[in-house]
Amino acid sequence: MQKTYYPKADEIQRDWVVVDANDQTLGRLVTQISSVLLGKHKPSFTPGVEMGDYVIVVNAAHIKVTGNKLDDKMYYHHTGYTGGIKSTNLRDLLAKHPERVIEKAVWGMLPHNRMGHSLMRKLRVYPGADHPHAAQNPKSIEEVLP
Questions:
Q1: Integer-rounded Cα radius of gyration of the chain
Q2: Tell me: the pLDDT tens digits for 90-117?
Q3: Is 74 within 8 Å of 87 (Cβ atoms)?
Q4: N or C terminus: which one in the chain shows less Cβ crowding within 10 Å?
Q5: CATH topology of domain 15-65+95-139
């Protein structure tokens, strides 16, 4: 009889991966990030277990989008008051908070539960080229993904 392998917490090894978002398309970049966060690139991937790596995204202000998404893509949030829906387009959000664009896109590709919230805590996004995680010796995403 074959037994199903279920990884233990101390068997999971988490690395740090750095991603350069300079001139990358938003959707294609975010699919790679979410795959690394979930741990789907590892041979011992198990759904429902946090096996992914920490991800550092640099140059978030320099991502590209195709088509008319800069003006047509809208982000909404509600203040909680009656008639309190607020909206902003992608161009304005990239100008003010470029890291939020990647965070919102990654959140849309992760499970919307406790596991997804803990995976989001493993994501670090920076608008410029420098980051304070050099001590973790991050790998490039090309080394991690095939």
A1: 17
A2: 999 999 999 999 999 999 999 999 999 9
A3: yes
A4: N
A5: Ribosomal Protein L13p; Chain: A; (3.90.1180)
